[in-house]
Amino acid sequence: MEIDKAIRESEDRRLKTKYNNAIYVIKRALALYSIEEVAFSFNGGKDSTVLLHLLRAGYFLHREELSCSNGVLTDFPIRTIYFESTSAFPEINTFTYDTAKTYGLQMDIIRTDFKSGLEALLKAKPIRAIFLGVRIGDPTAVGQEQFSPSSPGWPPFMRVNPILDWSYRDVWAFLLTCKVQYCSLYDQGYTSIGSIYDTVPNSLLSISNTSSKEKFKPAYLLTDGRLERAGRVKKVSTLDGTRFPAVNNGLDNLDSCRNRMCTASVVGVGDEILFGTVEDQLGPSLCRKLHSIGWLTSQTAVVRNDVDSVAEEVERCKSTTDMVFLYGGVGPLHSDVTLAGVAKAFGVRLAPDEEFEEFLRCLIGDHCTGDRNEMAQLPEGITELLHHEKLSVPLIKCQNVIILSATNPTELDKQWDCLIELTGSDGCFVTTEPFSSKRLTTNLTDVETAQPLSKLCSEFPDLYIGCFRKSRQGPLIISFEGKDPARIEAAVEALCKKFHPGAFSEVKN
User: How does the average pLDDT of the chain come out, rounded?
Assistant: First the structure.
């Protein structure tokens, strides 16, 4: 069988692993369901083209194991579903029908909408499982496994996803290694194909030239697979027709963020901190760093090395503060559950990230593989990698959650400086107006100061007025924190007027 032979002769170990895993899923499905009970959804795109040839190879190997193959695949009996749309590219339709003729596909062509067409087909045919070319990163992939029942409200069938963990790079490695035909649009700069109304060539593949017609490199030359969907046009309009960007991952615009109080949560993960085995140095250091750039740390916590504990704390914090900073529990050990907890908090799953895996491979060598390395699993669909030349591995950002891998203050200093440099100018994490502060000390008792201080807090609600003693017999220290120095001076003056002259003295920093 030519597909299996091409992969076996390839020197691409990663591709071989992905191929073997996909074939296993296909053979497992063919063992669970009869050939009449399975179908294949084909749309002419690169992913379904890969799946077509994997199914051909998987069916051949399945028959070979049953001793009913003579080494040549002469027919492909798996029913093929094609949803023909008036908004599809003509090249997609042409490629689909040419492919069907070349490989003898039994086509069921549906011209209604996807759901009603599928309902009618499943009523007419005994189909129980459908092979899909869904990959992690696709909008429909969230929450799916290699075998996933159809969603509530849809006709019942098993979704079989043999290439769920394949990356953009894996898809093109397969197509080029096996030398199979694919839709011609991919050679014209299209990297992800939808309808004629929402798809354009990927601008990252544009070739500079003097001619009036823009030209593009082929899709397989796109170096960053995360930008596969950059050619999908998103149009979001207001009622008055004004268009705005479809996605805003920041907090607000830069100016409004600088002029308001930004809040953060700091969450440590580690049984060793809770047991008192080690002293937590990173949490207090993060609080000081946030304070130095004008952010208010509204809450801190340390949770156990437990997925549910992390998930509950992150879910609570991400909805009540602007940013959440996590440290601890990042790595390949059984106790490193931070990423899994973040994924659960956002209701997504962990998925392989090819780019992150490459960084890890450079860092730890051949011990890092796509199959075994848990560190290469990141929350799917919400993760952004923040690259900096001073960092061997990028920082991880999941919407408004920053995950730090630092294990000591020196590493934290380095990651913090890089984070400020990377995110400070794009509105996602900005330096706000710094805090001003002043401290007074007094020998007055708590009873004498309690009521006047309570009234002072009501008069200056925009300030943080706190009291503490370094020892029970020591003087009372009153601190004033705020963004407006004039307000702090006014509060200090108001407090001093409530007592006799000389009751307070200023603490010099």
Answer: 84
The amino acid present at 332, given as its one-letter code, is P
**Which neighbouring-strand residues pair with 158?**
129, 149
Distances (CA, A) of 223 to 199, 227, 259: 19, 9, 39
State how far the Cα of 299 lies from the Cα of 161, in Å rounded to an integer.
42
**What value, to the nearest 5°, has the Cα angle with vertex 148 and ends 146 and 152?**
160
Q: Torsions phi, psi of 402, nearest 5?
A: -105, 125
For the segment 56-74, the average pLDDT, to the nearest whole number, is: 74
pTM: 0.56
**Range scoring the smallest mean pLDDT among 9-23, 221-235, 460-474:** 221-235
**Which residues, other chains included, contact 295 with Cβ-Cβ below 8 Å and sequence gap of 6+?**
262, 263, 264, 322, 323, 432
Query: Where would I find the H helices in 338-484?
Result: 338-346, 354-364, 409-423, 446-459
Tens digits of residue pLDDT in 377-408: 888 778 888 888 888 888 899 989 999 999 99
CA–CA distance, 21 with 18 (Å, rounded to integer): 5
Q: Tell me which residue has tokens 């939808």.
A: 194
**Residue 96, amino acid:** T
